[in-house]
Design a protein that fits this description.
By secondary structure, the protein is mainly alpha-helical. Helix content is about 65%, strand content about 5%. It has a 3-stranded antiparallel beta sheet. β1 and β2 form a beta hairpin. The longest helix has about 35 residues, at about 105-140.
C-alpha cells in the first residue's frame, strides 16, 4: 500500500511538472544548445580540441562534450523548473488536504524529490535524442548508444540530483520558498563553477573533487594526464585541419578512482534532503502563504514599462 501511494505521488509529480508551458521551451533550448556546441569541422570548429588538433567525432567524443554542456544547462535551469510545487498546492487549495493526510513527511518529500529528478532525467533524454540525431549528420564513427548512456549518466546525474534536492529543500523550508531560494541556488551554482580552477591540478581521490558536481575538473584532469597536455578545449574550439585526428581515450578516462568520485558527488548532492525533512513546514498557515502566480509577470511588466518609458515618450513627440 505504501509503495502504491509513493508510486501514485511520483506519477502526479512528474505529470504536473511536464505539463508546464516552460517545459517545451526548455526542451527546445536544450536541443538548440546541444546542436550549437557541436561545431561543424568543415567550418573550422570542433567540440573537443586538444592543442591544435580535434578529436574524432565518434560516440565517445560527442557524448563527452554534449553531456558536459547539458549538465551545466540542466544543472542551473533544472532547479527553477523543479521547484514551485508547494506554491502550486497553496494556490490550488490542496495544501490543506495534503497536510491532513496520513502520508508521512518523508514520503511526501521523497515523492517530490523523485518526481523532480525523473522530470530532469526526461529532459536529459531529450538532449540525448538530439545528440543522436546530430551523430547521424556529423558522426565519424559507429553509433554506440550504450557509450552515450554511460557518459550522460556519469557526467549529468550528480548535477541533476543536486538541482532536484535543492529544489525540494527550497520548497520545504518557508524562508527559501520565494526569491531568496532562487538567488541562493544561483550563487551556489556559480560557486561550484568558480571552484573548478582550484581543482585544475587535483589528482587521484582528492576530496575537493567531490564538489566537482558537473565532473568537469575530474574528467579533464584525467584526460590531461593521458594526453600529456593541459591545452584541452570543450565547445567550439578552433583547430588546424591539416593535423591528424585524435581518438578519445575512453578506457583511460573512466578509471576506478574517477567512478568513485562521481559516486561520491552524487551522494553529496543528496545532502539538502536532510534539512528539507527537518525544516518541512507541512503547509502550516502561520509559516507559509500562497503567492499569486501572476505576481512575477506583473513585476516584470512594471520594470519593462519604466525602461521603455523614455522611448515611448520620444516616439509620441515624433508622432
Amino acid at each position: 500500500m505504501k509503495g502504491g501511494t509513493l508510486a501514485a505521488l511520483l506519477r502526479v509529480e512528474f505529470l504536473l511538472r511536464s505539463r508546464r508551458p516552460a517545459t517545451l521551451l526548455v526542451m527546445l533550448a536544450v536541443l538548440a544548445i546541444s546542436w550549437l556546441v557541436v561545431g561543424n569541422p568543415a567550418e573550422g570548429t570542433a567540440l573537443v580540441v586538444v592543442g591544435e588538433q580535434r578529436l574524432r567525432y565518434d560516440s565517445q567524443t560527442l557524448a563527452f562534450g554534449s553531456a558536459h554542456f547539458g549538465g551545466l544547462l540542466l544543472g542551473l535551469a533544472g532547479f527553477y523548473l523543479a521547484r514551485g510545487r508547494m506554491q502550486e498546492d497553496l494556490r490550488c487549495g490542496v495544501a490543506g488536504v495534503l497536510a491532513a493526510t496520513p502520508v508521512a513527511n518523508s514520503r511526501l518529500l521523497l515523492a517530490r524529490f523523485l518526481g523532480a529528478l525523473l522530470f530532469l532525467f526526461a529532459l536529459m533524454g531529450v538532449q540525448l535524442l538530439g545528440t543522436w540525431a546530430l551523430h547521424g549528420l556529423r558522426g565519424e564513427g559507429p553509433w554506440q548508444p550504450l557509450v552515450y548512456l554511460q557518459h550522460y549518466l556519469l557526467l549529468m546525474t550528480s548535477g541533476l540530483i543536486l538541482a532536484a534536492s535543492c529544489a525540494t529543500l527550497c520548497d520545504a523550508w518557508a524562508p527559501l520558498m520565494g526569491r531568496r531560494g532562487d538567488v541562493a541556488y544561483f550563487f551556489l551554482w556559480v560557486l561550484l563553477l568558480a571552484m573548478l580552477p582550484l581543482n585544475e591540478h587535483a589528482q587521484g581521490l582528492n576530496p575537493s573533487l567531490l564538489l566537482d558536481v558537473q565532473g568537469l575538473a575530474t574528467t579533464v584532469n584525467r584526460m590531461s594526464e593521458v594526453l600529456g597536455t593541459r591545452e584541452i578545449g570543450i565547445g567550439g574550439g578552433d583547430f588546424k585541419p591539416d593535423l591528424p585526428l585524435l581518438e578519445f581515450p575512453a578506457g583511460a578516462i573512466w578509471t576506478a578512482e574517477v567512478l568513485l568520485l562521481r559516486l561520491g558527488s552524487a551522494l553529496l548532492a543528496l545532502l539538502p534532503l536532510l534539512p528539507a525533512l527537518a525544516l518541512f513546514h507541512r503547509y502550516q498557515p502561520d509559516r507559509v502563504r500562497a503567492r499569486s502566480a501572476a505576481a512575477a509577470p506583473r513585476r516584470l511588466q512594471r520594470v519593462l514599462a519604466r525602461a521603455l518609458a523614455p522611448a515611448t515618450r520620444g516616439l509620441a513627440r515624433l508622432l
